[in-house]
Amino acid sequence: CAMGHVIDDVRNCRIFHKKSFEPIEVSGINSSQKEITILVSSRCKEFESDRLILKQDLEKQYQGKIKIVLVPESDDHIPSPDSIDELSLKWAENCDVYILLLGKEYAEIVERELVTARQSTRIRPDKQVWVYIKDLKERDSQVENLIFSLRDKEKLPVKNFKNIIDLMGILIKRLSEHLT
After folding, report:
1. Between these two residues, 28 and 111, which has the higher pLDDT value?
2. Three-state SS annotation for the chain
3. How far is the CA of 131 from the CAs of 34, 39, 136, 146, 154, in angstroms?
4. 26-44 burial string, b = 16+ CB within 10 Å, else e?
């Protein structure tokens, strides 16, 4: 069962490749560099399929260079004493790159992950926090407040995207720069 593999993946820190888009050639990756762990956050249903596409395609493009972690949306899929939120916060703290996707829906745990990821950059200055905001006409007021806080108050660099294809291009460029 695919969900079983995702569970095993998250619990045991193992990532595997699935069927994905056609590969896009990427050059300039330093082959001596260790594999980096990336947490793609946003446990909102609106990004469920996008997160899977990102994982599949980017891991295929950067085989051996990155592993992408996706925390499942509910506790029902984690056969572990750790709660899904505790697991999510551990990944946010320990990953090399934390990618936050913001859209229409708000999830309190995502904001907690962001705080955890940003706090861990004080200990690990090489850690990256990347924020991407989907272009939408309407969104939850809590998401609007978070975007305002990140962009205007904290001056955190954020980038907008239109759809999964646009986001994929942005991430390929950013990862190529990060890995060289």
Report:
1. 111
2. CHHHHHHHHHHHCCCCCCCCCCCCCCCCCCCCCCCEEEEEECCCHHHHHHHHHHHHHHHHHCCCCEEEECCCCCHHHCCCCCCHHHHHHHHHHHCCEEEEEECCCCCHHHHHHHHHHHHHHHHCCCCEEEEEEECCCCCCHHHHHHHHHHHHHCCCCEEEECCHHHHHHHHHHHHHHHHC
3. 23, 12, 15, 11, 12
4. eeebeeeeeebbbbbbbbb
| pTM of the predicted structure, to 2 decimals | 0.76
Say what the pLDDT of residue 80 is.
57
Structure tokens at 13: 């820190």
CA dihedral 112, 118, 124, 127 (to 10 degrees): 100
